[in-house]
Amino acid sequence: MRAFLDQKFWNLLPLISAPMPFQLALDEVLLELVEELALPLFRFYFASEKSITVGYSEGTVPKKGDRLRMPVYRRITGGGRVEHGRDLLFMLLAKKENEGSFRSVRLSYLKIHEAVKLGMEKLGLQPRFYRCDERLTRGPECFLHPIATDLAWKGRKIAGGAQKRTRGYFLHQESIQLQEVSADLMIPKIKEGFETVFEMKWRLEDLEPLWLERATVLALEKYETSMERQILKTEEAYERVRIFS
Asked: Which of 43, 114, 118, 223 is deepest in the core (most CB within 10 A)?
């Protein structure tokens, strides 16, 4: 009998389309409340507006992203700069003890990407892993400078993630940059990939109003950068959040 197989169900939250500050804030709120949640917890989401995020260890964050003139926000996870607005994102929040690979950053990253890779294969694609013996360049742009176990397709990086680990828990944030395939097709297959690789089943979980309220406040207080957005009322901010059942 394998260890860590007692956690057969993962809790899946509804899909959300919202500005990136809200999405980052919701992930942070869930991490803050982690001891009260049913884990593992998973969600897919979209950034409803173009933006850039950078890892927590990056230096000074500019108000606008270089030549792209997009707002820039700092994640609580590591990693490099990622452009959002056309990508599919997902978040996994779990205890390190929920699954054997979760104890290790490297092994959990690899296994998560095995699930994503399998999902893409179910769509007829043939992605591959970047290997540790390849000559991979380093730089601040996440999708221009892949690392080993990131996913590639047709010569470019299409999936990469970053993690934050604290108090025996970890948060994984992932971006999939594959505009050739619609999210409506991709999400079900990626879910199937996780079911196979992690030997788990999905259980639908509702979004608690308190989570949304706290995320909205945190987004406005911490993540929003322009004065115009900072003076938005909470009710107005909610209008930019779309939840799909």
From this structure: 223
